[in-house]
């Protein structure tokens, strides 16, 4: 074990931990009881360490390396793609910084748009690596979306991400601007086009319906994206949330008691009424089940310990947007309240609820 740890650049304690949690278990032991790693064990360790160094949490890594449909070659291809994507982002940031330095050296004013250029304005590229671990299709929400799609056969999924909620019984075309997200779409999923919602590369009324699930708040111009959806499809179905509802930040205990910064994230986002008007849509409330399979921000409203898990938070854009200081303070305070029993005392009314209305809404046009 010591030799393997030395070659891998990790501690023996790390290898012991991987063994204890079943992530990398050596397949044999010597007569004296020492762990012995086979070639296959080393290969699995290589995959685990590669994903870890790309920022994946242990549970995410366990899901990835434990996927029986993915062999060593597939892992290498995926890792190569992720590394190239990271290299491309780093190169782009260096180029943007060089341009800003050159502009400032000439005494030129740098616009806010130019300042943000180095980040690529694509939040999914920052959080997308964690999506496959926690962002899955929730069957009860999927059923409501399916009902809203009606008898539509050709479906455009805008901001499709890794493919959650894409209906398997229809002809789907996906649109996703983030290469990180596109790389994680499973084999056999719908064909995916690299494009943004605000400029869809399709003719007018090319689809029966355009759908968008938990993505509008990431678009640069949400209203333009909604208009594009109506242009390219005869109907539209959009899962979003109501930002203008009075007291919305106070409805959810996490934003009310631990993350007041959430309210500032809503500034400038279109109201639900404005989005519904742009689509000509009716509004349906979408209750969130207590055991929601899709790890969206409000999913764990009755399972508060989940918010203490880094891999859970990494798949939620809210934490990236509020910043590490607010995140660490919120997690620390929540952990203290869970340990002391204060959270349970404050939220005892949630114990017997099967679902909660936390502002999630379906627009159906």
Quick overview:
With 365 residues, the protein is an alpha/beta fold. It has helices spanning 2-8, 12-20, 39-53, 58-65, 72-105, 112-116, 123-127, 131-134, 139-149, 179-183, 222-232, 248-251, 253-257, 262-265, 272-279, 310-314, 317-322, 324-340, 342-346, and strands spanning 28-29, 35-36, 154-158, 171-175, 192-193, 207-213, 233-241, 282-285, 288-289, 355-356, 360-364.
Number of helices: 19
Helical proportion, percent range: 40-55%
Basic shape: globular
From the N-terminal CA to the C-terminal CA, the straight-line distance is 61 Å
- Number of E-state strands: 11
Low-confidence runs of at least 5 consecutive residues: 120-124
Please state the structural category: alpha/beta
Note the main sheet: 7 strands, mixed
The H-and-E topology, N to C, reads as: HHEEHHHHHHHEEHEEHEHHHHEEHHHHEE
Q: Tell me what portion of residues adopts beta-strand conformation.
A: 5-15%
Mean model confidence by pLDDT: 85
As laid out across the biggest beta sheet, the strand order is 5-4-3-6-7-11-8
Taking all Cα atoms into account, the compactness measure Rg is 23 Å
